[in-house]
Design goal:
Layout: H1 10-22, E1 27-33, E2 39-42, H2 45-48, H3 53-65, E3 69-79, E4 88-93, E5 102-110, E6 116-118, E7 128-129, E8 136-137, E9 144-153, E10 159-160, E11 164-169, E12 175-176, E13 182-191, H4 196-215, E14 219-227, E15 233-242, E16 247-253, H5 262-274, E17 279-283, H6 290-298, E18 302-304, H7 314-320
Parallel strand pairs: 16-17, 17-18
Antiparallel strand pairs: 1-2, 1-13, 3-13, 4-11, 5-6, 5-9, 7-8, 9-10, 11-12, 14-15, 15-16
Bound molecules: zinc ion (ZN) (3 copies).
């Protein structure tokens, strides 16, 4: 089955693509706050199109599933769970007393007295001197050893391998362990550049047919809702009526499909019947598959393959009328 007419509302799909293709970088960002579940789009596509955000995301994910778009996680931002500020900096604390008054350095051990502390405490003008016994340290390996990097607390004297790290909010002043921080994930949906021309032309074809039908005295509605004899309302790409000719044309496009299937032809025939369409027109670069083509011919469903630019030619329009 052609999914773009059954999974998502096609007129909404067209609006979303039309909007994204006009963005400078053909992309839209989803900002998701993991803790609260809050989400918004930037630019705010959903608000610009008066659509529900979940519905907009369904459409974007559908376009991704059809390989016309990519979705990438581009950023993870941490924020303060109290005041929501992103101005948080990691701070290192003493494992013993929690003080932030600590420093990091190589540890020197003076063999003869056993004193051990950061190198900076041994440094004098001339070289190294033990702060405890005040002897000069001469030869590394014989008088003393220079060991690994460690942390020293200036508040309690504790010497340790790695500090406790937590996060200090610069706005409200609170400290938090990493697991308590809020997290915002930023995703980017971006149109595949190789598909841009195809999308542009596919959007153009409805506009082009619209113009030609109007010239021929039709009353045309594009990206609209039409209610059938059954009372059911459908979203259709184009619906044109001409009371003088007693003609009703239903036209549909396919942007993301590579093939139009027999199920889709059956759906169109039923749709055309309910909408009392005299002619059903399929505008697409995608071919019918073999059985779909047979059935489409049998039902007299007309296929229009527009010019590369998306233009529907005068000759093609005349054949429809
Ligand atoms: Zn301490
Ligand atoms: Zn010493
Ligand atoms: Zn805060």
């Amino acid at each position: 089955m052609s999914l773009e007419h059954t999974r998502v509302v096609h007129t909404e799909l067209m609006e979303v693509l039309k909007n994204i293709i006009t963005q400078e970088d053909s992309s839209v960002r989803l900002i998701l706050q993991k803790n609260t579940g809050e989400k918004f789009l930037y630019p705010p596509l959903d608000k610009m199109l008066y659509m529900n955000i979940d519905r907009t995301l369904d459409i974007l994910d559908f376009v991704v599933s059809k390989n016309f778009m990519t979705k990438k996680q581009i950023e993870t931002l941490k924020f303060c769970p109290i005041c929501f500020s992103y101005e948080i900096i990691p701070t290192e604390h003493c494992t013993n007393c929690g003080s932030t008054n600590i420093s990091r350095g190589r540890v020197i051990e003076h063999f003869s007295c056993g004193y051990r502390n950061l190198e900076s405490l041994f440094v004098t003008n001339g070289g190294l001197e033990c702060p405890r016994c005040h002897k000069t340290l001469m030869i590394e390996g014989k008088d003393y050893s220079r060991g690994k990097l460690m942390y020293k607390c200036h508040a309690c004297g504790n010497l340790y391998d790695s500090p406790i790290i937590d996060y200090h909010c610069q706005k409200c002043g609170e400290y938090f362990p990493i697991e308590e921080l809020g997290e915002t994930i930023v995703y980017q949906y971006e149109l595949e550049s190789s598909k841009k021309d195809l999308i542009q032309s596919s959007l153009k074809m409805v506009e082009s047919l619209d113009g030609s039908l109007k010239e021929n005295g039709y009353n045309v509605k594009r990206g609209t809702q039409v209610t059938g004899a059954s009372g059911i309302t459908y979203d259709v790409d184009l619906y044109a009526t001409n009371s003088a000719k007693e003609d009703v044309i239903l036209a549909v496009t396919y942007l993301l499909e590579d093939k139009i299937t027999i199920d889709e032809v059956l759906r169109l025939q039923a749709l055309g019947y309910d909408l009392n369409a005299k002619k059903i027109v399929v505008m697409s670069y995608a071919p019918f598959d073999q059985r779909a083509e047979f059935l489409a011919n049998y039902y007299n469903i007309k296929k229009v393959v527009p010019e590369k630019t998306g233009e529907v030619t005068k000759e093609q329009v005349i054949k429809l009328l």
